[in-house]
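Bug report (template v2)

What were you trying to do?
Predict the complex of my protein with iron/sulfur cluster.

What happened?
Run completed; filing so the output is reviewed.

Input:
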Amino acid sequence: MSPLLEVTDLRKHFPVQGGVLGRTTGFVYAVDGVSFDIARGETLSLVGESGCGKSTVGRAVLRLFAPTSGEVRLDGERIDNLPAAQLRRLRQRMQVVFQDPFSSLSPRMKVREILAEPIRNFDLARGAALEQRLISLLDKVRLPRDALDRFPHEFSGGQRQRIGIARALAPEPELIVCDEAVSALDVSVKAQIVNLLAELQDELGLALLFISHDLAIVEHLTHRVAVMYLGKLVEIADRRSLFAAPRHPYTQALLSAVPVPDPTAKRQRMILTGDVPSPIHPPSGCRFHTRCPFVFDRCRTEEPALRPAGAGHQAACHLEQPPSAVAA
Ligand code: SF4
């Protein structure tokens, strides 16, 4: 079966303007050749530090802006070059849940209007059928039915994110992009929202692109993980393989910061030194070489391609054997 979403060699370069004439003096290489796919009913988590380009990937997939180059296909149809007039039907099939539900929900609209708007926009139901849909949406995200007649400010952060999820579900999309959707929530609320997303995905057969800087959160939700560094994917693998045997030193460093629930197990912390380099002047060769503890000459000049590192597992590193920096 072909994937629901296919992203091939996606690039997004933002021009940098300078001088009195505002000429383009360079580019921010925010996304620089990213490829992955997502099957129906699958969650792919895109993880990496702030500024690595993961949210830009999400926004380019959603066509919130056009990519610089590359292809994005939804169910086989190219969508990266769709004219603006045809984007409307795409909006029904792909939805987004943002990090901050408070700023993404209109404070002047009651929940009834917030949820009814996309249903009406896509002409999916009216009258009694619309009311029934609203109730069903609230049931799905475990909110009481009287929530319909309240405003967003009357809810807690976690409840507002449930409203954001209900709004994303309203047009019955096939794919939802969750862009740091739980990052602003307290730890216990985070876990509840992650569990809710996992249940909804199971129940509705949704595909999720789950964008997060937090590997610990994605472990309980995801089927596969793609790790991004400075505009590129450095590793992609199914969840078990990635968490049990990360191959890329950057993934190992991220994973070494994830707490282990078993107090008898030890994980050797791998501290990365230095800042993430500027995406305006990314390093030559392997982009991670300025921070990698295993760097050698070849890394500074030759860019490593993603290559097989086990079943369903790829990593972009010149090392033949993964360094044993993470001891489980
Ligand atoms: Fe480190 Fe070299 Fe591998 Fe890059 S290619 S991750 S610098 S060992």
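What did the reviewer find?
The chain has two domains: 5-93+173-315, 103-172. The CA atoms of residues 124 and 270 lie 51 Å apart.
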